[in-house]
Amino acid sequence: MQRLVHKPRYSAFFATILTVFTATTVNATPSSSTQFAQYTSSSNVEIQYPDVDAVLDISVIEMGASNRELAERPLGSTGTRLKKRINRLTALESNRVYFENFNKQNYRKHLDDVTASLAELADKAPLKLFNKNEQLAYWLNLYNMTLLREMAYNQSDENIKYEFANERNSDFFNRDVLTIEGQALSLNDIKYDIVLNNFKGNENVIYGFFTGVIGGPSLQSRAFTGKNVLSQLKSIGREFVNSNRGTYYNGRVSALYARYADFFNGENKPALIQAHILKFIEDDMRESIEQAAPSELSMDIVDFSKAAIIDDRVYAAGLSYNRAALMATHPVLTTGFDNLRFSLDDIQVLREINRKYNTARSAVTVNDLSESEATSAEK
Length: 379
Prior knowledge:
This protein is mostly helical and 379 residues long. It has 15 helices and seven strands.
């Protein structure tokens, strides 16, 4: 396997990237994480996401696990010296999205309908009625569907790289795009306020956020669910760590770990990140990461290329069109969403819970998930 030339090591780069990513405070409403901190640990009510599944099934093509292969050098078109620039280290990795769907009016309408339905759920059944795993699945699905919707209306090939590279300071990620239980929220509010503060210590949550670019965790073709969210995040994390996007020779790891350092609960961030990576890494990159001192890890692997099919103008057009055509007759996307979120039994339970809360004017007790509860949720 070909090895890339080693880049400058961790110490200087990490200090620089943390300054870039954390120097500016996200425009999060201070009360966001507090407002959504309550939950009911004893709740067994499950939120269902058939509409999210339907959109993801139409949108995502799964590329499979990385084999650590480098892409061939682009040859360029006949009669020109111009070549398409790619990151050879990562170009063959990551699930891809049919971004050409974004130009289709019916696709945008379905994204509007699904995100609106997710937002309205909290008005009909306040989030504090659910356990913590259900809430985590909800926030991740809401974030990813909203990001797809916002990209469909506002993003172009030219600026997606800039917006994500400057995420913490980006108007795209910081403007209010949702209202949940009366609270106006931006994408960064969800990620860096609500999820960061309410799920801190479970660093696997970083793998649940779609980034729109190849260098981030893959968007999955199925929605997160409260029952499976912890195991789903582990699976995505394992794929990411064991890919060229996550780790490579000479102690190189993804720059995302520097960006998401606050999700690691403790003072020595480099050591925590290294220990986290070693939980997942399975191939011959392990020795390179294990032998590096935490302060010497190079958090410099980036690929801000859009997570689209390679040369999607040619190869994705037919596939994208055929899949988009499914939306016109899809049994989930062509019906109302009111009865999709819960089973009839769960609807009855929610009504009873609401009745009791309104009668007793009782507040939901906030309890941390026990280790046994978290473990059982993964099985």
